[in-house]
Each structure stands twice: as structure tokens, then as C-alpha cells.
Amino acid sequence: MNFADIFSLEGKIALVTGASYGIGFSIASALAEAGATIVFNDINEDFLAKGVAAYKDAGIDAKGYICDVTDEPAVQKMVAQIGEDVGPVDILVNNAGIIARTPMHEMEAKDFRKVIDIDLTAPFIMAKAVLPSMMERNSGKIINICSMMSELGRETVSAYAAAKGGLKMLTRNIASEYGAYNIQCNGIGPGYIETPQTAPLREPGHPFNSFILAKTPANRWGTTQDLKGPAVFLASAASDFVNGHVLYVDGGILAYIGKQP
Ligand code: NAP
Ligand code: GCO
């Protein structure tokens, strides 16, 4: 295999969850640019339609499905439908996620459970749905979108940190349990990226903005573009002996003690 072919996704089918916009859209676009056929889902019909149109504008013929990633029968149905429509999933990216920013002592258990359900249980449900076919074909890539909060805590994000820390361990466990089937499961841990999820933290004058810049050696917020190369690497043959890792794409945050005030 020559060098360019190592990164090629020609002939592969990639399912990216929650990919109408934001990080999911950018990762799906990168996989498409590397040659993959893209399928994605959203829970919201309007966002799904906007997503399909945005892919079209980018020259990508992506197929969208309405599906809540926490609903196991709906996920099984969607994966079966994708099998009929385009073929079996070769690459799964568990991107759909939510965050709740609430002091833990004020958080209701139902709101904590909701974050765990979408950010941790759903990647299990999604992976479970694609694994049997990957095992049969002795080939597969699963990429879980983790977070700085897979390693670090901070005020107000207890449920999110618990879920993303758990997702790091689910990643290692899938790698351990299915590595013998030539299935690689790795994570991407984005640093602080400009998306709707972080919009409240980036409002003008919000102290979090200067806090994050002081914590990031790159001295900037990440963009969704920054995640494209790492996603193609982990989806392609270039990473066939890389399993159970989380690749942090954080401008150096985890390496740095932070700027002296
Ligand atoms: P975003 O802009 O809020 O997008 C999240 C996507 O997930 C949306 O399309 C949303 O759909 C979808 N989604 C939520 N719940 C769903 C469900 N139950 N079923 C199906 N889809 C669902 O988030 P983002 O910033 O792009 O983040 C994407 C992933 O990266 C998340 O897992 C997030 O935790 C992680 N991450 C983000 C950052 C960052 O700085 N932005 C950093 C580290 C990790 P609707 O819009 O229809 O609700
Ligand atoms: C926060 C959360 C998220 C981050 C991200 C960091 O601190 O509020 O951690 O908003 O975007 O997950 O990797």
C-alpha cells in the first residue's frame, strides 16, 4: 500500500452520529473527502434537513436518518436500514452528545442520568448495533468523541465528566474485547472547540474565554477543521495497529500547567 492509500477511505461506509452541524459535520466531511460514503443521524427533522443541504453544498452526497441514539430498538432499525440502503457500516463515529452546566449540589438525578444516557450509554448502544457485522467481516473502526473532561474535572460539569471519563474506558474495553476481530476502537478528545455547544462560554466578556486561552499553549480556541486529520487517521488503515487510545486534539492543554497570572 502506498502512502496516500494508507489514508484512503474509498469504498468504506461511515456512520457519524449527531452530524448535521458542529464537530460531527466536520468529521463526516473529512471522511467523505478521504473517499467514504457518509450516513448520519439527528433527532431533529429540521436540523437533519439542514444537514443534508449543508453536505450537498459541500459536494457530499450524505444520507440522513432520524434517530435518537439512546433508543436501542430505533438504533437497531436504523443500522439495518443503512445496511439495505448503502451497505454495512465500516466506520462508526459516536459524536452525538450534550452537556449540562449545573453545580452538582443543585443538579437533579434525572438531569445527570440524561447526560450519561446520551454521552455514554448511547455509544454502547451504537457500537453494539454495528459490532456483529464488523466481527463477521473481520474489520471495523469505532471512534468515540471524548473530551478534556475524560481526564480533567471542572465546576458544573459532573455528569459530563463522568460520562466522558466512562467513554474513555468504554473505548479501551471495546478495543480489548474486539481487537482480535481486527476492530480498532479509539477516541478523539477535542480541546475547547468553537461550536454551538461552547457558544455560551465564548460570549463577549465571558471570563471563560481568557481562562481557556491561558490554559492552551496554542493560545486559541480549536476549530472543527482541527479534528479532520485525526478523524481520517483513526478511520483509515494508517491506524490499524492503534487500539484503545484517546487522541487529544487540544492545542496542548493536557501538557500545560497554565499561564502564570
Ligand atoms: P453540538 O454542536 O451541540 O452538536 C451535538 C449534536 O448531537 C447535535 O447535532 C445534536 O442534535 C446531536 N444529538 C444530541 N442528542 C442526540 C440524540 N439523543 N440522538 C441523536 N443526536 C443527538 O456539539 P459539538 O460541540 O459539535 O460536539 C460534538 C461532540 O463532541 C459531543 O459528543 C461533545 O461532547 C464533544 N466535544 C465537544 C467539544 C467542544 O468544544 N465543542 C469539546 C470536546 C468534546 P440536535 O441539534 O438536533 O439536538
Ligand atoms: C465544559 C465542557 C465542554 C468542552 C469540552 C472540552 O468545560 O463546559 O468541558 O464545554 O467543550 O468538552 O473538551
Automatic annotation (TrEMBL):
Enumerate the NCBIfam families for this protein. PRK07097.1
Superkingdom: Bacteria
**Nucleotidyltransferase listed as a keyword:** no
Family affiliation? Belongs to the short-chain dehydrogenases/reductases (SDR) family.
Among the GO molecular function terms of this UniProt record, one is:
oxidoreductase activity, acting on the CH-OH group of donors, NAD or NADP as acceptor
Q: What is this protein called?
A: Gluconate 5-dehydrogenase
* InterPro entries for the chain: NAD(P)-bd_dom_sf, Sc_DH/Rdtase_CS, SDR_fam
Coiled coil region boundaries: none
> What keyword terms does UniProt attach to this protein?
Oxidoreductase
Pfam families assigned to the protein according to its UniProt record, in alphabetical order: adh_short_C2
